[in-house]
Design goal:
Elements: H1 6-26, E1 35-40, H2 45-48, E2 61-67, E3 70-79, H3 91-95, H4 108-122, E4 130-136
Parallel strand pairs: 3-4
Antiparallel strand pairs: 1-2, 2-3
Length: 141
């Protein structure tokens, strides 16, 4: 049985993040791609400014697109679990907090809602300029 606890599990998750980002970066080599920039662990400094830093905790990979002069952002939360790769993502799991399993700080849905709040409400960007993605190796339940 494989052990994914501690540093080994964390390193595996880091490798998933890095490989995902490289895969996305390669898309910028395609002349047809509208992808113009990538961030890791947050947004570019000019977009983060003026907003509470915690709003961007849900952005593991930010993909910036230029669609005929209009900037769009795909804020991606990446989830990797070598130990529970078959355990489905359910609504309850997405809403569970990290410590007490209640909706709250640390839950996937809270972090993604914070991204929306930061981008649309606080930065006053158009809602249709933001997409939010949960990228995971586990199936949806």
């Amino acid at each position: 049985m494989l052990e994914f606890g501690g540093a080994k599990g964390s390193n595996t998750g880091d490798a998933f993040h890095e490989l995902w980002a490289v895969r996305q970066a390669l898309r910028m080599l395609d002349a047809e791609s509208k992808l113009v920039g990538i961030t890791l662990e947050g947004l570019c400094a000019s977009d983060e400014g003026g907003v509470e830093k915690s709003r961007w905790l849900g952005v593991d990979c930010g993909l910036y697109y230029d669609d005929e002069g209009a900037e769009r952002l795909d804020a991606q939360q990446l989830k990797y679990s070598g130990a529970d790769s078959k355990r489905p993502w359910t609504i309850a799991r997405v809403c569970a907090g990290k410590t007490d399993r209640s909706i709250g700080a640390g839950s996937v849905i809270r972090r993604l809602a914070d991204v929306y709040r930061g981008w649309v409400i606080e930065k006053k960007r158009a809602a249709d300029s933001l997409s939010i993605s949960l990228v995971a190796i586990r199936p949806a339940g």
